[in-house]
Amino acid sequence: MQKTPNIDKNTEALMRGVGTAARGAAHALALAPREAKDRALIEAAKALRRDTAGILEANARDVEAARAAGRPESFVDRLALTDARVDAIAKGLEEIAALADPVGAVLADWTRPNGLRIQRVRVPIGVIGIIYESRPNVTADAGALSLKAGNAAILRGGSESHHSSTAIHACLVEGLEAAGLPAAAIQYVTTTDRDAVGLMLTGLDGAVDVIVPRGGRSLVERVQTEARVPVFAHLEGICHTYVDAKADLGMAESVVLNAKMRRTGVCGATECLLVDRNAPGEVLPTLVKDLLDAGAEVRGDAAAVAADPRVKPAEADDYGHEFLDAILAVKTVDGVGDAIAHIAKYGSQHTDAIITEDPAAAERFLAEVDSAIVMWNASTQFADGGEFGFGAEIGIATGKMHARGPVGVEQLTSFKYQVRGSGQTRPG
Description:
seven-stranded parallel sheet; 14 helices
């Protein structure tokens, strides 16, 4: 790593050591049997449950600091842990352990006319650098998924969740050591110095193979601008739910309310409700009333304002905005084509849903909306690796190269070709 005068030499030395240790651990993990990786995850889950009190105590320090700094409650919700949330993290590790081992899976197998047998085989990527913000559960999810896929992980969490993530990471290390795997297989960057992020983005002397950012626009844009290694981008979750003219109103009420209000601070929360102008007259007022009564602030177009006096007139930048709070933009559109056009203009290619009983409209929406996840008659809050059966996720990739949608164990692998011959030579 070339010395950068503006970076603290202690931070640079720390990160240089992290990179070297990760590269060594990655070689060991690539050859590790499934049994060892699974045991590490199961033992880590046991440690999480055993050390719940300590984890919650560490988390309380982070939450107290966040509130003292005036952070909004939606931010605090993403940061806060409870007994149930810690247990859910532990269950996530167990679910990842139960997944099939992706390493070594044969993706394709064929024999050429000359007798060469060619196989495309799944292999680990190597070292994954994960940079994230306020959600301490990402420490466990990212470390566990990387491990299952045979990769070493370098985790750099946000300073707001530092105490919580440190406590969770200790449980992961306990699991690694119990399974006889190198502790450096999952490293947590101990310094809160922001220069550590910049050093990770340089690749740490070639130690880091890919960077996965998980956080707000400013973090992701910095990573995409500065990274000298490939990036699995997780941008904003500007998610839409479109209620078609042929939607079942009861279903629409249930889905829309869940899509916005189940947890307002997650990236899969619906941020904009689109309603077909040709829907029955009671649809828009009913949906708006449900949201307002549930405590949401609704910012809408003229039709939405007319539907309920509590609705605030929407500003231009309310469309295409990730609120991450109990705030929702509402707009009426002229059918499924107009809804698709609105999403193309204002969405972030994350998750978008249609509510309708019309299969033709649904299939058009599914085909034409260019998002990582497109849904029919389901809440956008299902945009989650665990709900997809991946055990957990590192994030929802909104790019189109290599990984898209929930980034689970398979997305954290690459492949190579194994060619078996019997003395073949290529003619001149």
